[in-house]
């Protein structure tokens, strides 16, 4: 009986060691939560309430929805845009890929979870998606960059439906790589001064004003002021829509503020303010 007991205890000890080794391996392989982490998935409970508000239906930008079957139709259009972009710069495609490779760890750390793409696939995805956005903004800024057979600007409904997906939280690339790739392309162009008059900030702010000004009023110059601080496009919007400093520093005496409807029913009078910032409320 004692022999069986010792044998059983020995078996349990070996199993616990194996289990401990397995768990230790999982702990070592945890994705590091780097300080630069800024791109997250939307919580499932939030997504379930309005799936179309958070999930791309036409175009995938970045790794979270990369490779999904229902989004593959746009992949060919992305590559056509990459081809157009490369035709204007003398920088070779291998140089762009190497440039991204040198920043791969920094790029991966911008995402709040481990990206299960091999290095080559990840680098290729970043280049194709980043240049797609750059080329889209260029064509919006300079209509002469468009071609008659352009599938996106040639069919207005395609552009209108797609432009909103660029501002989905799960459809983001770090802003620094877009800016750096544009600057790299500018170093040697086939036509002198082709991009000299503008920067990536110029075409980005122009695109934002042309596409969101109707429903998100942003005060003049706030896009330019916050561009260098923004982590990605959604972050740029958040920075521009924050309350002004003078209001954000005021401590509330009671955090349980009644709703607008309750205040109105209680007789509180409202009038529009002069600020364009939606959160500047007095």
Topology:
Blueprint: H1 2-28, H2 44-49, H3 73-86, H4 93-101, H5 104-108, H6 119-141, H7 156-163, H8 175-186, H9 200-212, H10 222-227, H11 233-241, H12 245-248, H13 260-265
Helix pairs in contact: 3-6, 4-6, 6-8, 6-9
Protein name: DUF862 domain-containing protein
Number of DSSP E strands? 0
Please report the distance between the alpha carbons of the first and last residues: 81 Å
The number of helical segments is 13
Rg over C-alpha atoms, rounded to the nearest angstrom: 25 Å
- Uncertain segments of ≥5 residues (pLDDT<50)? none
Largest sheet: none
Secondary-structure-derived class: mainly alpha
Q: What does it look like?
A:
With 282 residues, the chain is an all-alpha fold. The chain has one domain. The protein is built from 13 helices and no strands. It is globular and about 75 Å long. The N and C termini lie far apart (81 Å). This is DUF862 domain-containing protein.
């Amino acid at each position: 009986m004692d022999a069986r007991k010792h044998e059983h205890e020995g078996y349990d000890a070996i199993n616990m060691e194996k289990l401990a080794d397995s768990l230790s391996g999982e702990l070592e392989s945890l994705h590091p939560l780097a300080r630069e982490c800024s791109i997250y998935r939307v919580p499932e409970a939030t997504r379930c309430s309005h799936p179309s508000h958070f999930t791309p239906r036409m175009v995938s930008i970045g790794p979270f929805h990369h490779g999904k079957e229902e989004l593959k139709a746009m992949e060919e259009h992305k590559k056509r845009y990459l081809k157009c972009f490369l035709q204007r710069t003398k920088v070779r495609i291998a140089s762009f890929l190497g440039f991204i490779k040198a920043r791969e760890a920094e790029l991966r750390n911008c995402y709040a979870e481990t990206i299960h793409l091999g290095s080559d696939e990840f680098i290729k995805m970043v280049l194709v998606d980043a240049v797609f956005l750059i080329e889209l903004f260029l064509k919006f800024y300079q209509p002469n960059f468009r071609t008659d057979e352009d599938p996106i600007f040639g069919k207005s409904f395609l552009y209108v439906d797609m432009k909103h997906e660029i501002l989905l939280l799960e459809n983001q690339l770090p802003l620094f790589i877009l800016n750096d790739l544009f600057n790299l392309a500018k170093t040697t162009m086939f036509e002198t001064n082709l991009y000299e008059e503008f920067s990536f900030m110029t075409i980005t702010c122009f695109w934002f004003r042309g596409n969101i000004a109707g429903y998100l009023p942003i005060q003049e110059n706030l896009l330019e002021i916050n561009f260098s601080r923004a982590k990605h496009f959604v972050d740029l919007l958040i920075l521009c829509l924050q309350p002004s400093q003078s209001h954000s520093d005021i401590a509330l005496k009671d955090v349980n503020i009644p709703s607008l409807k309750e205040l109105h029913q209680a007789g509180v009078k409202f009038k529009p303010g002069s600020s364009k910032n939606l959160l500047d409320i007095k």
